[in-house]
Structure formats: C-alpha cells, structure tokens
Amino acid sequence: MTVTPPPAPTPGHESDQRSLGEIVSDVTQDLTTLIRQEIDLAKTELKEEGRKAAKGAGMLGGAGLAGYFTVLFLSTTLMFVLDEFLELWLSALIVTVLWAIATAVLALIGKKKLEASRPQLPQTQQTLKEDVRWAKAQKS
C-alpha cells in the first residue's frame, strides 16, 4: 500500500489550513494593493501624456502669436485696400464682420472637436481587465 502525500500548496498561496477570516483578510489586502497600483499607473500615464501635450501646446502658442500678428497686419492691409473704393469706416466694418464670421466658425468647430476627444489610458485599461480576471479566479 502506497501513501500519497497531500498536494503541495500552489505558488503565492498559503496552505489550505487558513481560516475564512485569514482568506478574506488576504484578499482584502491584495485588492487594496492592487487598487493603489492601478491608481499609481494611471497617474504615471497621465503625467507622461501631460508633458507631451504641454510641449505641443507651447509650440502652438508661439505659432498662434505669430499668426495673430500676421492676421492683424493683413487685416489692416485689406482695410486700406478697401479704403481706395469705400469710406475708411466702411472698410474697417467689412473687415470686422469677416473676422466675426471666422471666429464663430472656428469656435463651433473647436467645440465639436473638444466634445469628441476622450483621453485613453491603454495600460491602465489592460491591467484593469487583468485584475478582473484575477479577482474572478480568486472566487473560484
């Protein structure tokens, strides 16, 4: 007659002799650690994306300032060209109305683009999916 030894505990688990309270305590502690790690990962991803966005925003800001002066002088030139055919005040009014229309169109397009944007956190999403699978495995 051969005697078979009891099965060895699986890696990462204590022996099967733990009480229910110990198991619940371990799972609670693991979940707390897991949640903290997920929050840290999300913070790290957002910081990295924020740095990239800040650099791009700085460059766009500089381009915007240069563009502003270009448009200002182009508008002044247009106003003086129209002054050759109309009164100066009417030329200035026409240029102002053109810019008001451009402003409204750009504001509407910009609003739609902002509403459509949704930042993604791919690593956080992936690890959260893995965490759900791990939690389900703990229940089994």
Biggest pleated sheet: none
How many angstroms does the end-to-end distance come to?
Answer: 34 Å
Strand content: under 5%
Unreliable stretches (pLDDT < 50, length at least 5) are none
Query: How many domains, in number, for the residues?
Result: 1
Structural class: mainly alpha
- The counted number of beta strands is 0
> Quick one: overall form?
rod-shaped
Give an account of the 3D structure.
With 140 residues, this protein is mostly helical. The protein has one domain (22-133). Helices cover 79% and strands 0% of the residues. It is built from 3 helices and no strands. The chain has helices spanning 20-83, 88-116, 122-139. Helix 1 packs antiparallel against helix 3 (122-139). It is rod-shaped and about 95 Å long. It starts with 19 loop residues before the first helix and ends with a helix.
Strand and helix layout:
Layout: H1 20-83, H2 88-116, H3 122-139
Helix pairs in contact: 1-2, 1-3
Keywords:
140 residues, mainly alpha
